[in-house]
Design a protein that fits this description.
10-stranded mixed β-sheet; 2 domains
Length: 416
């Protein structure tokens, strides 16, 4: 063990001496490895960052929540599009019958949405507000957190009271220098009182943040607009109980909706049951393809860099032939000579990997400063990448090292 350690340290020393004596050549041989490692880790990091941001947005929709809607989130290419068009939208009567009959649900809510609306408070106004109206169980089907105020009482929901919960961006726009609670704002041409402000969540990639949302009781809005209209995207949101899996909830919902819509066994469903696992599966496929593409491009660059290092190692063996002869004549074993060149090739690859990783971290730092986006650099993938570098170094240096170890000492010395 001590002999091996001594041999290893001496090999590293010889390798560093060789690299110091040929700085430009070493630098040029590093370029391919550096670009390859930077590409691989950069693509993986970009994909992981995008995936995490998208997954965080998807998670807001609820892992045990199913959305009964007219349109599916993922289209089946074999299903005629005109059948989707002819489907009825979820109606209040569907919602009411579901509430009466469903057993596996923690909460059931009927919701509609209206985008791009203007809301006013005195001389202040906010454009592009997202108006949502929901039945009382909305708070059971979604994660509702408050910065100030409270949720609707059951009597307010039932009576359709003119009250509203607003997002933090709406609050900042309408009340820059005042507390929003208790203020009367103008929404849909009606005056409503602000009773709560949603917790700020910031932007997300699926635009499901409540920051620009105004939530109103469904029974209030139904007196102002036609909530049956397709233009408002009516949907029924169902969240399962903790002991009920999403598959069990989906099975129960499908049976109940077919019964409520009075569909016979031969008829297709005229509704869609959408869930977050559908989006997650699509994300897995999409990012899997991107990962493979990045791995291929980066791997090709690393492979080209490996050939460059192999070529440099052949040149190095040629230049140091007489030194190898002297070492062998003084008793150096073949494995010691071979170790020198293998360690040199591995060090070149690892140095290229370190430089590539450093460039990724530098770009991540610049991105954070410039766009306030946190780039995820997965440590596990970094380890795998450096293992790959070591293997490339071994493969690149093996043949030159083997040739150096097999040199005849007399012929090697006479080569000078």
């Amino acid at each position: 063990m001590i002999l091996f350690l001594k041999l290893f340290l001496e090999s590293i020393s010889f390798a560093f001496d060789a690299l110091r004596q040929n700085k430009l050549r070493a630098f040029l041989s590093l370029i391919g490895i550096t670009i390859g490692i930077m590409t691989i880790i950069g693509v993986f990091s970009a994909v992981d960052t995008l995936r995490n941001n998208l997954q965080a947005s998807v998670d807001k929709l609820g892992s045990n929540t199913i959305y009964v809607q007219k349109w599916p989130w993922i289209f089946d290419s074999g299903f005629p599009w005109w059948k989707y068009m002819n489907r009825p939208s979820p109606q209040l009567k569907d919602y009411e019958r579901l509430v009466e009959r469903i057993e596996g649900a923690e909460g059931v809510a009927f919701e509609i949405g209206m985008g791009g609306r203007m809301v006013k408070y005195k001389s202040n106004s906010v454009e592009g507000a997202q108006l949502s109206a929901a039945s009382h169980d909305y708070y059971k089907t979604r994660t509702v957190e408050f910065q100030d105020g409270r949720y609707f009482t059951e009597s307010e929901s039932r009576a359709g009271s003119p009250v509203a919960i607003i997002g933090s961006d709406i609050a900042d726009g309408l009340f820059p220098n005042a507390a929003p609670l208790g203020k009367v704002i103008n929404v849909l041409g009606r005056k409503v009182t602000v009773i709560g402000v949603f917790q700020r969540e910031g932007e997300d990639m699926l635009d499901v943040s409540p920051d620009k949302t105004i939530l109103l009781p469904l029974n209030f809005v139904r007196g102002v607009i036609d909530i049956k209209s397709d233009r408002y995207g009516p949907q029924i949101t169902v969240k399962g109980k903790e002991n009920v899996s999403v598959e069990e909830l989906e099975s129960e919902l499908k049976g109940l909706m077919r019964s409520i819509r009075r569909l016979n066994p031969k008829e297709d469903d005229d509704f869609s049951l959408n869930k977050t696992t559908m989006l997650t599966a699509q994300l897995d496929v999409m990012f899997g393809i991107v990962n493979i593409a990045g791995l291929f491009i980066g791997g090709l660059s690393v492979l080209v860099g490996g050939f460059g290092i192999a070529n440099i190692m052949f040149v190095s063996v040629k230049e140091r032939t007489n030194i190898i002869g002297i070492q062998k004549s003084l008793g150096a074993k073949n494995y010691f000579i071979m170790f020198q060149f293998l360690i040199e090739a591995i060090l070149l690859c690892l140095m290229g990997g370190v430089i590539g990783l450093g460039m990724v971290y530098l770009l991540a730092f610049i991105t954070k400063l410039a766009a306030d986006i946190t780039i995820v650099v997965d440590f596990g993938k970094v380890i795998i990448t450096f293992i790959t570098c070591t293997l490339i170094g071994l493969l690149s240096g093996f043949i030159p090292a083997f040739m150096a170890a097999r040199l005849d000492p007399v012929e090697a010395i006479r080569s000078k």
